[in-house]
Structures are given as structure tokens and as C-alpha cells.
Amino acid sequence: MSRLILMIAITVVAFEAGWFTGRPGIRRLRERTRTLRGALTAAAWQIEHDHLTCLLSRQGLITAFADWQNRGQAMVVVFLDLDNFKAINDDYSHDTGDEVLHIVGDRLYEIVDLHAGAAARLSGDEFAVLLPVRDRDIARLLDEIVSFVGQPINVAAGGVPIVIEASASAGACWATLSDSLPTALDRADTAMYNAKHARQFHVFYEPGMTKPAAGHRRGARPRDRREQRTTS
Predict the structure, then answer these.
(1) Which of 79, 85, 93, 146 is deepest in the core (most CB within 10 A)?
(2) How far apart are CA 127 and CA 149, in angstroms?
(3) E strand intervals along 29-167
(4) What secondary structure letter does DSSP report for 50?
(5) DSSP-assigned beta bridge partners for residue 121
């Protein structure tokens, strides 16, 4: 009997010794797992987001587009391009240009957040927006987007406060559940070029629409001319 008790005691002591010895290893393993999980999450976020504006990147837009289609959600795809952005970089600096892009990104985020959409920076001064199809005036919504993005931007160039008179052109198209993102973006991009060519703020894609011949937009847009006449 005493030998049995002794064996039980030795077993208990050995188990407790192993438990307390192993606990730091288990704790370290859990900490490393949490660290690795956090690193993977951060890496995934960086892949799917633009580092300058914190909007979605092109890869993030691909994911969002696929998620919406998987949910059976038809959408409007908007392609937006800042007007004369190169002149901002040339006249001031690329840092000033980056600040303008950052502010435009904030404005787009506010709009899509309000309308349950998504926004991405594709490259340079090109942006894309996904909006769920609902009973709404799309033309008015596009006007809201372009007008909000085109508000004057207060930045500092070389430590001196300046006001950038921003403006943007947009093209949009319907995206059905059978459309791919490249196809939708190409249609919206085509509509955007037509908006620039026609000196309009935005144009909605129509079947058969093609990009106009290369050329620079000259003169003020119709609305600008109306506003100038109103104020004069």
C-alpha cells in the first residue's frame, strides 16, 4: 500500500513539474501565434489598401467586387480622374500632390461610407468607386461625388498655405453579376474620357461608346461658364 501511495505521489510531482515547466513554452507559443496572426492581418491589409490614401488598392477592389457579386449585388462602377493633376506636381511639388491625393481619398471615403459603397485608388490620380444599385438618381449621385471631390483644397507648399482649385471627371457604368471588374472599369474609363472630351463633369456609359481621339480639353465646362455669367 505504501509503495502504491509513493508511486502516486511521484506521478503527481512529475506531472506538476512538467505542467509548470511547459506553461512558459505554451505561453510563448500562444504569444508567437498572436504575433504571427497580427502580422498576417497587417500584411493582408497592406496588400488590399493604398498606403497613401488608405482607400482600397486595386487588389482590394477586386476582392470587394467579388464579394458583392457573391452576394448577388449589382452595382454602379465609377472611374474618376483628377483634372490637370500633373500641373500640381510640376508647379508645387510631389509632396503637395500627395497631400491633395490624401484629401481626395478622405472625401471619397466620406461619400462611399454615406452610400454604403467602396472606394479605391487605382494608380496616380485615378480612383474607382463601387455603389450598390438602388432606386436613386445616379446622375445626381455622380454630380455629388464630382462636386465634393472638386471643392478647393487647402494645403501647404514649401510652408506657405495655398488653395488648390481641384476638379475631376468621372465615368460610370452598370455592372451586372456576369461582368468582370476589368470589363466594368474599362467601360467606366471610356465614359470618363468622353466626359473630359465633352467638357462635362460625368458621363454614363452607353453600349457602343468608344474613347474619343486623344486631345486636351480646352476652355471651361458648361457649368463653369454658367457660374461665371451668374457672378459677373
Answers:
(1) 79
(2) 11
(3) 75-82, 118-123, 126-132, 153-157, 160-164
(4) -
(5) 127
